[in-house]
């Protein structure tokens, strides 16, 4: 069931140029990174890799849900034997499968090297799951991009703050709360190709993202059924 949903969604998204545009954005990010001197890659690459599978994925899954609300696809879940949890998992799996080549494009084209790509792909896999599920959870309540813009902007700003803390720009003790933001553990994976990150740190970062995946799935499951399937406001 999930496999069929993934294939169908991929065909629809490809015909609507959603996934080709997604990969073109990754290509553009890679070219931007390539324009920077090599010493800036440890800063620029992690930002773009997070933005692509995380924040862009968060936006794309939301706009996809809006479109499917309008054409009645999601409403049909309430009256058909299709398991709506399968819909959530299929959306997540598809975004992960698209995010991995996107991250590879940014890394490979931007740095002209694939050293450390395994760390980037591992972080991309986990962070894509988290942000896709959060995108489903948040967007389920809204009906168009105008309403979605404020929470989208809020998630984007909050997710980028860990970069400022990591590089020493937010030094007050209160900013340690940013360790709880899912982009922070992902940052260690994206930094690993450029600086030495201990395996212990990567292990705990992966564990944190797995916990976040469980939280995000729980939120997506509840809010998608309440607002999208049942149509409650």
From TrEMBL:
Keywords: Membrane, Transmembrane, Transmembrane helix. InterPro entries: FLQE3_permease. It comes from the Archaea. The keyword DNA-binding does not apply. It holds the Pfam family FLQE3_permease. The chain crosses the membrane at residues 21-37, 43-67, 88-110, 116-136, 148-168, 202-220. This is Membrane protein.
